[in-house]
Amino acid sequence: MTARVGVVTFPGSLDDKDAARAVALAGAEPVSLWHADADLRGVDAVVLPGGFSYGDYLRCGAIARFAPLMSELVPAARSGALPVLGICNGFQILCESHLLPGALTRNSSLRFVNRDQVLRVENTGTAWTGDYAEGQEVLVVLKSGEGSYVADEATLDELESAGRVVVRYVGGNPNGSRRGIAGITNEHGNVVGLMPHPEHAVEALTGPSTEGLGFFTSILSHMAAGSPVNA
């Protein structure tokens, strides 16, 4: 049976179609989910895509956390049962929903950053990174204005000691994120948020590489194995 991966569209989402294409290229069935849907339609995993949900009013992701669909997604993800990948604005939504700690703030340059970016994979024990090797460097796309990951020192220390930093920037820190953190996971390893865009690096014709596809094949490998993840 083909895995079904939901891709949520909020008002202002920009990268939902790109995420759905990445899901399809990985071999799963993308399922379009609308922010006002009453339920998740029985999908096996969910991607929260990049963009400007609800126009980024108040704060990035601050309104999206209250979307009707999130009332089912949040408890399912918090329990460890539902794998969720949040990309860029999706990462912001995960932090606003308290599924991940910390927050995303204005880039240290106070300018929008749009560049090809190398990441180092630090944790391959999540539902979304199992097809990578620890320490592997991948080239994807970074495009954000509020991409600086911040948290208090105790939280950062906990993330480091528990191995919950998933990816880290290589070749300089493009947005001032604390400790060069580009993405993190929750304690179960089923929820991953990252600021760069792996869905824009899945085809040689349009991306800087195809090395982002591993995020989407990893979830299929995880579900095929049927084993729990370890952060």
TrEMBL record:
Part of the FGAM synthase complex composed of 1 PurL, 1 PurQ and 2 PurS subunits. Part of the phosphoribosylformylglycinamidine synthase complex involved in the purines biosynthetic pathway. Catalyzes the ATP-dependent conversion of formylglycinamide ribonucleotide (FGAR) and glutamine to yield formylglycinamidine ribonucleotide (FGAM) and glutamate. The FGAM synthase complex is composed of three subunits. PurQ produces an ammonia molecule by converting glutamine to glutamate. PurL transfers the ammonia molecule to FGAR to form FGAM in an ATP-dependent manner. Pathway: Purine metabolism; IMP biosynthesis via de novo pathway; 5-amino-1-(5-phospho-D-ribosyl)imidazole from N(2)-formyl-N(1)-(5-phospho-D-ribosyl)glycinamide: step 1/2. Its main location: cytoplasm. It comes from the Bacteria. Gene3D superfamilies: 3.40.50.880. It is found in: Cytoplasm. InterPro entries: Class_I_gatase-like, PRibForGlyAmidine_synth_PurQ. This is Phosphoribosylformylglycinamidine synthase subunit PurQ. The active site is at C88, H197, E199. SMART domains: GATase_5.
